[in-house]
Model the fold of this input.
Amino acid sequence: MLEHGGRLRRAAQQYGIPLDGWLDLSTGINPSAYPVPGIPLSAWHRLPEDDDGLEAAAARYYGSDALLPVAGSQPAIQALPAVLPGKRVSLLAPSYAEHAHAWRGREPHWFGGYGAAAETAVDTSDIVVLVQPDNPSGQLFERNRLLDWHARLARRGGWLVVDEAFIDTMPEASLAPEAGIDGLVVLRSLGKFFGLAGARVGFVFAPAAVRRQLAEALGPWTVSGPARHAASAALADTAWQAQARTRLTTGGERLARLLHAAGLGRPSGPSLFKWLPTPLAADLHDALARHGILVRLFDGTPPGGALPAVPPSLRFGLPPDETGWQRLEHALNGCAPERSAP
Amino acid sequence: MLEHGGRLRRAAQQYGIPLDGWLDLSTGINPSAYPVPGIPLSAWHRLPEDDDGLEAAAARYYGSDALLPVAGSQPAIQALPAVLPGKRVSLLAPSYAEHAHAWRGREPHWFGGYGAAAETAVDTSDIVVLVQPDNPSGQLFERNRLLDWHARLARRGGWLVVDEAFIDTMPEASLAPEAGIDGLVVLRSLGKFFGLAGARVGFVFAPAAVRRQLAEALGPWTVSGPARHAASAALADTAWQAQARTRLTTGGERLARLLHAAGLGRPSGPSLFKWLPTPLAADLHDALARHGILVRLFDGTPPGGALPAVPPSLRFGLPPDETGWQRLEHALNGCAPERSAP
Done:
C-alpha cells in the first residue's frame, strides 16, 4: 500500500509544535466542508439500500445517470484493472500515484501531458489513464482534446479513464455528462470540493457492463448509510454548491497572487490547490513548517520502477479562514527567497 | 452479486401494505441500535486515520489486538480467497451464502455441522469456513471442538475461518481472543449486536501477514470517518453492551417461547434471531405478511451448483418494542397450524 496521511503527526513531532498549532495546507480538500445535517438513526441501523435518493441526486449533479456509487475513488481505482482488459496501458505522469500503483501489473507506459508521447499513447494503447485537472501539476486538458482522444481509443475498443477528483469548480470541463458511451470511464468524488473526504463517497461513470462488473468486484453495501445520507444532501444543495464554487474560486486566485507576490513565481492548479515547482521546495517546506504551516512536499525522489518522479515542488491547499490567510502571508514573507515589489 | 435487501419493498407492493405499516423481523439486527453520539465535522472532513482510538477500543472489546478494521464482514469475506492459499476448501452448509459465493472459484466441498463429514473436512482441507453461531440454522459449535479443528488444520498449514457475526451475546464462545496464531481467521462485525449495519464496520482477526495482505487488497480508508467515530464509542460503552446483552438474551428467550407456544416447535438460534425449519414455511410467511409482519423465508429452493439448499424454514428477528411483541403474538395465534395448550 502506498503511504498516505500521518504527515501532520510526524511534522508535529519533528518540529515540536502540537497538533492543534498547525495550519494544515497539505491536502487539496475544501477547508469549508459541506455542513452535514443530522444523521437519522435508521441510516446507522439498516443496511444501506439503493432507493434512498443518492443515485438520483448524483445523476442531477453530475449530469448523467450512468453511475455507480463507490466508497470514494480509491476502491474504483483499485478495481478498474480487473474490469478493463487490454495489454498496453498508458498513464499521465507524474500524477496521483495510486493510479500507477493500481496498474503496476500491466507495466504501464507514461506520457507527460500534451505532446507526441500523449498522441502516441492514444493511438497505441488499450487504456489511457489521466487525472483532470492533474494532481499535483494542475494540468488541465481541453475537453475537446479529451473527446478526440476518447474517440480514437474507443474506435479500437480502447478506454479513456479520467479521474476528475478536483474538477467541481469547473463543471463545464467534466466528461461525466458523456458517460455511458463505450470506452469512457470517469471518476468523481465528494472528498475535495464538498470537503467530505472522511465520508468515502464517490461515483464511477461508465457503460452498464463496466458498472456491473465493478459492482460485483466491490460487493454490496460499499457506501455506509450515514455517508449516503450526507452525500444525498450535499449533491442536492445547489445553493451551497454555488456559494462554495465562488468562495473556492476566489480563494484559489488569492492563493496564486499571494505565492506570486512572495516571489515564488506563478503556480498552477485548480481552485482547491496551487502547485509550485521549485528547486528550493525542501527548504521552503522546512521554513514554513517552522512557522507551523504544513504544505505538501514533493522532494523529487524517483518513486521507483520506471515511474517518473514529481519534480521538486510544493502543493498548497487553501487556508480555512482569514487568520490562516494572514498567517500564510506572514510566513511566506519571512521565508520566501526574494520578494516581488509590492 | 447475490441478492440482498429490497424484500420489505417487494412485500409492501405485493401485500398492499405501506412501508411504514410493517413489523420487519426479516433481519437478525438488534432492533435497539447503539445510540450513536453526534459526529464531529472533522470525521466527515478529513481522511480517516488509524490514530483515532478505534483499534484500541476494538482490541479491548474483542480481547485481541491482532485485528484489521474493515467495512463490515462483506469485503473481508470477498477478499479472503485471494489471501488464503490452498486447493481444498470446505464450508459449513447450509449457511450464510456470501461465503460460498466468495469461494466458488475454488469448487468448495460442504459439511453439515458435527459429524463424519466435518471431521473429514478438517483432516483433508486446506481451508475450513464456518459461521458461529450459524446463520440461519443457529448451530453453535463447542469452542473446544473448534480449537481442536484449528489445531489439526494449522498443523498441516491449513486455515480455519470463523465468521462470528452473531456471537456478541455469548462472548465466551468467541475465538477472537486466540487471534494472531497461524491458521486462524475470525470475522466480527458491528452490524448485528450493536445494530449498526448501516455503518459498515467490522474486524478481521488474523496473523499479521494475513492482515497486511488484506489491507493491501482492500486499500486505504475503507472505513469512513463517521463510522470509525461511532464504532469507537460503541465498542467502549461497556454499560450499553451489558444492558444490550441482557435485553437481547431476554428477547431471544421470549421469542423462542412465543414460537413454541404457537405450536411451531422449538426454534434454534442465538438471541438475535430464531430459526424454524418447517415444511409450512412459505404458507406461514404468507400468513404473517398478511398481518404486515415480514420474516425471512427460506423456501428450500436449491441455490444452484452443488451448494446444499437451506431447508424450508423461517428466520424471525426480535420485535423492537412491546407493541411489536403483541402484534407478533396475535398474528402467530391467528395463523399458526395448531396451538399448544397454554
